[in-house]
Write a structure and sequence with these properties.
The chain is mainly α and about 425 residues long. The chain is about 80% helix and about 0% strand.
Length: about 425
Amino acid sequence: MKAAGVRWRMLALMFAGTVVIYVDRNTLGALAPILKKELNFTTEQYSYVVSSFQIVYSFAQPVAGFLTDLAGARLGYAVAAVIWGGAAALHGLSTGWISMAAFRALLGLSEAVAIPTGTKMSTLWFPAKERSIATGWFNSGSSIGAALTPSLVIWLAATASWRFAFLITGALGLIVAVLWYAFYRDPQAYRGLSAEERAYILDGQPAPTAKPNWREVVNKPRFLGIVIARFLTEPAWQTFQFWIPLYMVTVRHMDIKQFALFAWLPFVASDLGCVLGGYLAPLLATRFNLHIVNARLATITIGALCMVGPALISFAVNPIVAILCFSLGGFAHQMLSSMMYALMGDVFEKPEIATATGVAGMFGYLGGALFTLALGQLANTLGYEPMFAVLFAFDLVAAGALWLFIGVRRQPAYA
């Protein structure tokens, strides 16, 4: 008997992998106040550690995306999970910021497969009308992983050591590798997929072309809109992941254990943004008779406007209000972020999805790295709050660029 709902099982695998990726990725940020003391980091040196991941991750994404399109997701993602789990565990052997930066770079190299694979999976396994829901759910794994990390790793550091915290979180990557390789298949290779579900998945999807082509991807005018938007919006998420703990401990004077009690709030709000954005886009398309692309862009615009939260953080009267401002920012960013991943399936052919996502991700993480380095230089002079306000302006410009380059005009509305 053929199984039903297989696409949701594949999505659950991708979701679980994304949760673990962001636990491994965010362990550094959660432990940053401890690491600065234990390893004698300066704020500037901490920015070098963070940016080492971002820079390597950015340049590895196009390669990871192209290889995913060329060779398939099953083996590539499993091998990457083994490497990123090992890299995360190796953080525990660090003796200073230089060795930490080296392990961080290895983590960035291996985790670059994550978003291209997730975007390709959602395109292969879901019809166009469900794609934003799928990307919203798998992208919510980043928020859930980030929400779980502070309490988990601060508890591990308090009960054992910060080195032990890196070891335990790194081991999760090995578990992901085994589960993914054992259970993931593309639709054409999944023998238990029913004819009804296969037809449903293929509904409204264009026929694939022969193979990915870098030149065709980057020469599409719409790609420029994606690149501009990713470059401007990615700094917000990188800031939330790696700088909130330092800001709350050093500027708002929260104890690290007290911070752990509230650190999950911005990321739970981010998770709500992912899921709500996924359902909001098709709702807007149906309710207002919008083309699905324009409905996604409307959702992105709503998210950009909600990024006003971090811009107002200098007016927060106490640390809890500051965390709530970050929470609104997390909600906003992940709403627009999940929609940008969904747009990739609207703009590019199936064999190009991971390639295009990887190239766009390169520019996104370069934007994040540049902002991280600027924050490391200016945090102790200009201060954190003006830099947080800049993120709001970035997202507004990004939304405008997407409307300019991708907005659909005089075409049939989505049904």
